[in-house]
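re: that chain from earlier
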Amino acid sequence: MSVEIVGMIGAQHVSEIHPAGGPAIDPEFLRRFARAHEDGGFDRVLIGHGSGSPDGTQLAAHVAAHTERLGFLVAHRPGFVAPTLAARTFSTLDTLARGRIAVHVISGGSDAEQRRDGDYLGKDERYARTDEYLEVLKRAWTEPGPIDHVGEHYRFEGFETQVKPAQQPRIPLYFGGSSQAAYRVGGKHADVFALWGEPLAETAEQIASVRAAAKAAGRCDLPGISVSFRPILGATEELAWQRAHRILDRIHAARGGFGSFTGPKTLGKSAEVANVGSQRLLAAAAGRDLHDRALWTPTSRATNAAGNSTALVGTAETVAEALADYVDIGVSTLLIRGYDPLDDAIDYGRELLPRVRETVARRAANPAPAIS
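^ sequence. v structure.
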């Protein structure tokens, strides 16, 4: 059994504990960031999306020209451009990147964030639009054309494109969400369904929901599952926990954190927590601080669960075993990023990724006996 390991890059050095400095796009930092992930053995890197963030397709094109092997997972919100244009954009990017592009579909969990780009649809309507959008996107990538379409949100006649993806039959689709609507649409379309890092039991419940939705949509091939974490490593368990508490103190000092790769955060007790994923993380954090082997939730509570924010704390060996626990319950992709973004990516490549792959391979070769 193999596991895909995904990191995350942005155009400037910023995180919950590092205020953004310098220009919004620092090309040299972006190249260093991507190369650190490629040198560290990551399979892909996520390029996030926010209403005020740089365009992810152009960031991906830039770093693709400065890397050889690394894949790019470009976050994309359906609804702001026509799906026919998106199909051509991503096909062009995939060709330039020599088949290294995947698309991470996010329907949008915050009404306020959507409205910054002029989208006033409600959540259920957004997911219905995403469903139709992905149908068009896949047809545009795989059918020769001309293509006609008449739907609730899109209508066009005679669509043809000269550019198709380098990957055949099409570019992979990842899909994020934790609501019933997300399960339904993502279960129907996603190659990989992305979740935030909850305790093992709750994650297993979500995996079952995604798979049930995929079967209800008539699929025989079930989506892969991605889970996201923020590992905090130390040479010893004590040092790892000391570092974890220093990070938490810095988040509190910044009143919830400075920001993220996708833009500044609006945090605090009064901040909107509309998306189900954040609500689930906060529910886990309200229960207790430490779950399972190493899952630590105070960072979620401190940031109001604004994004993937649960930590895995310990030595590289401990965190590798914790990540392998998720693979054991059906996870196929692990998305990890640090609170010290560049330095952590380098450390993960040196210390964590080899151990994760070794641990997953060892467990696959020597599976635990079934409990009768």
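The CA atoms of residues 94 and 101 lie 5 Å apart.
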